[in-house]
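Long-time lurker. I teach an intro course on protein structure, and each term I like to show students one example going from raw sequence to a predicted 3D structure in token notation. This year I'd like something fresh instead of my usual example. Would anyone be willing to generate the tokens for the chain below so I can use it in lecture? Attribution to the forum is fine with me.
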Amino acid sequence: MNESYDAILRSGNRGIYALAVVISTVLGAALIHRDSRSWPLSRRDRILVWAGVSLGALLGCAIPAFFAGGTIEKLAWMEIVTPKTVLGGLLFGFLGAAVVKRAAGISYDTSDAFARGGVLLMAVGRLGCVARHCCFGRPTDSFLGWDFGDGHPRWPVQVIEAVLLFGLFAMMHVLHGRRLLEHRRLFVLFAAYGFLRFGLEFLREPLASSWMGIGFYQWLALVVAGTGLFQIAVRTRALRGRELLEVGSSQVTP
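-- Reply from a regular --
Happy to contribute to a lecture. Here you go:
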């Protein structure tokens, strides 16, 4: 590993990072549990959905590092605790739920319950990255530059992302409270975070491989954003079709 990168990671606080991860998981899970109370599902089906999301997210956070190339892939094969990415967690968590629900014959849409808690988990967890000095930015001459341990001011990408994520949490909270964009809120988060992360990666130190001038995690961010936009479009079309059927049936004379 580059000596400068090693100095940055060694200067971080692993204890605070671990604490932030625990706190973010507890807060996120508690809010998701609260928002899932309205699910008309049996206890068994609830457990299956939670298991699918949890297992998928855990695998998704870890697996991409083994294909990222560059320093990230080297670290993945060298360390027991591999570099993680929330982008993979979002995608695989969604896929895990979809697979489990299809296998169990669960048709009820559970996605909205994961919107607020999911983004809160991400926001608090990113504060841990500030303490750990991971996910650091490129060197900069800007007054915003922070020295993360190698003597060079760098873009505080972790701080910027945390602020934006708390902003997304506020937006999800408003949408939830006003019951807006039902069955689509999680995918609004996918689209917003995917594009946000794509832009932030231009400020982050490129520790993974790139293709066509776009970094590995930027491509992953575009997949997340694209998944969100696709799901929003499909679900909006389905909801409109359902509304038209309801209007048509209400106009039929008995």
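Some talking points for your students: The chain has a mean pLDDT of 92. Strands lie at 146-147, 153-154, 210-211, 214-215.
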